[in-house]
Amino acid sequence: MGHPVTPSPDSTDALASAGDDALHLARELIRRDSTNRGGGDGDERASAEFTAEALADAGLDPVLLEAAPRRSNVVARVPGTDPDAPALLVHGHLDVVPAEASDWTVPPFSGEVANCPVTGVPALWGRGAVDMKNTIAMVTAVVRHWARHGLRPRRDIVLAFVADEEDSAAYGADHLVREHPGLFEGCSAGIGEGGGETIHARDADGRPVRLYPVGAAERGSAWLTLRAKGTAGHGSRPPRDNAVGALAEAIARIDRHEWPLHLTPVTRASIDAIASALGVDRAPGDTDTAEALDALVSRLGVAGGLIGPTTRNSAAPTMLSAGYKVNVVPGEATAAVDGRVLPGAEDQFAVTMSELTGDRVSWEYAHGSPPVDAPVDSPVFGALRSALLAHDPGAHVVPVCLAGGTDAKVFSRLGIDCYGFSPLAQPAGLDYTKLLHGVDERVPVDGLRFGVRALDTFLRA
């Protein structure tokens, strides 16, 4: 990485055309409903077939792979000019979370372009506009741009646009890694969702500062099933070992628990980079205790949101189930807990959950994926930074650990260093995080054009 990029022919006009193509592709992808309701209830085939056709138009040979009917994945390899260079994975997911049309200003699968009510700028509306059909469209538009102008990247690029990221990845990335690992031969690094968008902050003197977080780590997912057993009986003569009471006590302990600090190298690098970008003075020991760190994060203002959720493990009770009639004491009660685990804190999480659940309640993993991290001093991270600064020179690029998870957890099993990089210019006033899985999801049209330019620069570095 870091090699000079040959300018595209008539680069300004050509990339403007690629931006138009990205908007077109994103609109068409949004119009192909690929809602994933979980538990195997999903259908990505229409989106996958459309994407495969768009890639075939660029002279590629995409393959469609399904772990189950209509749970479609698209994989294609773009050949590079240097056969000795390690390949790069570019992954994204075709599925989207559900959208209730009655809650939206515009129909969620219409792909409508209309002004954003917050910023006044033209935006593309629809489920998947941010998460993450926009990125699949931008990457595909860049590849089609190269085909039109006879351009090639330096290294092979493997495109993997997958199903089921919004649930367990069983029909998507996990299936590909288990059953088709040869498709990713030679990939040493990868990019996907989880970074590259503009965060508008203020420095210590109140001046505006633009930050671009790049994901270099993720908390692991620990989705748990808790189970309490007791003696079933009549509600008028309740047994002493009521399963509902035992489970409720365990859930209350989990909900109240204050997890201790656990700062990973990526999070420490993130704190240092953000504080430096904002000109926030540091004090000795400002990350040594929860109180000191919370005070520091508060001083970082809106940028503190990039750090706060990733300084500890977490466990959120989310579901409860017990009984079938009000006057019958059930013999079993169950609950679900959404746990998130930092790199290096897996043992702490397991030990703590056993302590919190106690003797009466058992727990097991309903689904788990490991935490991951990648080096922030690598040539790849340097190239990501350079690509963003090439198109926004006054900005600051900072590494972050993601509070949630992406398919990076799966692809990392192949030894791939995965980074969150879906470049997107966001105007001030638009809260990017609230649009993820939210009502009226939308992306600025100019943000898509910025993403095309940044991706072209990085992917040909």
UniProtKB/TrEMBL annotation:
<dbReference type="Pfam" id="PF07687">
    <property type="entry name" value="M20_dimer"/>
</dbReference>
<keyword id="KW-0862">Zinc</keyword>
<dbReference type="InterPro" id="IPR011650">
    <property type="entry name" value="Peptidase_M20_dimer"/>
</dbReference>
<dbReference type="InterPro" id="IPR002933">
    <property type="entry name" value="Peptidase_M20"/>
</dbReference>
<comment type="similarity">
    <text>Belongs to the peptidase M20A family.</text>
</comment>
<keyword id="KW-0378">Hydrolase</keyword>
<dbReference type="InterPro" id="IPR036264">
    <property type="entry name" value="Bact_exopeptidase_dim_dom"/>
</dbReference>
<dbReference type="InterPro" id="IPR050072">
    <property type="entry name" value="Peptidase_M20A"/>
</dbReference>
<keyword id="KW-0479">Metal-binding</keyword>
<dbReference type="InterPro" id="IPR001261">
    <property type="entry name" value="ArgE/DapE_CS"/>
</dbReference>
<feature type="domain" description="Peptidase M20 dimerisation">
    <location>
        <begin position="217"/>
        <end position="346"/>
    </location>
</feature>
<dbReference type="Pfam" id="PF01546">
    <property type="entry name" value="Peptidase_M20"/>
</dbReference>
<protein>
    <submittedName>
        <fullName>M20/M25/M40 family metallo-hydrolase</fullName>
    </submittedName>
</protein>
